[in-house]
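Annex B, item 7. Sequence and structure tokens for protein A, then protein B.
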Amino acid sequence: MLYYEKGGVKMEKKKVIQNKDERIKDLKKLWSLFLKDPDAHDEELGSIFEYGLCFDYVPAGTFQDQRSGYFRYQLSWGGPSDEFRFYCDPDFIPYKITYVYLDWFDGMEIELKGKDFNLLKEIFENFFVESGTATQVLQESL
């Protein structure tokens, strides 16, 4: 097994990748439903509006050694929690998107590439930016 180790705590990389892949699969399904019918929902997942806990902005310097601010799409909270982070230019165009899995005193961040990046970028730009949500949460964080 591959492990990520930080501060003496080991985290199984395979488990984190599986969680990321499940979240991507859920979002792909919900986004596809939304594009066909904004009121559509899945029996198990609900609608894209119900998926996740919050969407907010985390300014640079909020956490120790955090150089850049990012938009956070938090999916779960507690131990473990997970989220997607959108690092954007001033025009709200993501140049980096990561999946973050946090389990108590440890965590792992995986940068999205290819089709996963494209899907989350599309959701960010067409769901969070076009609706004005990204602008609002950014202003609230200042």
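Protein B:
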Amino acid sequence: MARPRDELGAHMSIAGGLHRALERGRALDCGAVQLFLRNQRQWHARPMADAEVRAFHAARRQTGIRHVFAHASYLINLGAPDDAAWRRAVDAFTDELERAERLDLSCVVVHPGSHLGAGVASGLARVVAALDEVTRRTPGYTVRIALENTAGAGHSIGRTFEELGALLARAARPERVGVCVDTCHLFAAGYDVRSEAGYRRALGECREAVGLERVLAFHLNDARAPLDSGLDRHEHIGRGYLGRLPFRRLLRDRRFRQVPKVLETPKEPEPVADRRNLALLRALRRRG
């Protein structure tokens, strides 16, 4: 079977087993796949069986998909001010990293969390402490942590590259941590990347605060809500407020050619939407 041709892909369901995410991705000619490692709506997760791990590695060899990474549970709040909630989040995220390491994934994407009214400074400190504890518990791991930028609603942490950069700068083991940039969240947080100048400003801030080499993945999503709305509402590529040009610009940016980029756009019963969105992204890259 020929290898997928690029770094583009989508988030894939693990229904029927972790390996099924790769099989579904290959059916869509994905070069990248993001998946959940467990039921992301529940705290309790059964142990990952050796047979599951073997099936996953076999599927990866068979499909040839090069970029494979995970998204952590949405329940995890590394910025929680309550000690019990914080410990629960740290335990759950440690479990996610352990699973990802067994599967030889490149990174686990996680939302930094919410300070729940305790203040940004407190939230940043709690996230840094969580990162330090999780990396302390997982010495020698190659899987990295990718902190995802947020849309900025409520008390969320990580709305700006400045906040993400502060987390990276204060982490005890910064080599274990990078970022995942979500285009919808970026726009919702006030970064107007629809123009060339706006794109350059946003990426300039990313370069200064984070470092472009620490961008580990992209989530390619159009935005259903207007600029600076703070709303995390994903839309199909080219059908939202972002439009097509920002995606064309990013896809033609050679600095990120090897960075995996996955869709998190609305799903349909059949994979028609993913196929259509991927075809559009590839067409946008080809056009001069």
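Comment on protein B: Strands lie at 8-11, 32-35, 67-71, 107-110, 144-148, 177-182, 215-220, 222-223, 234-235, 261-263.
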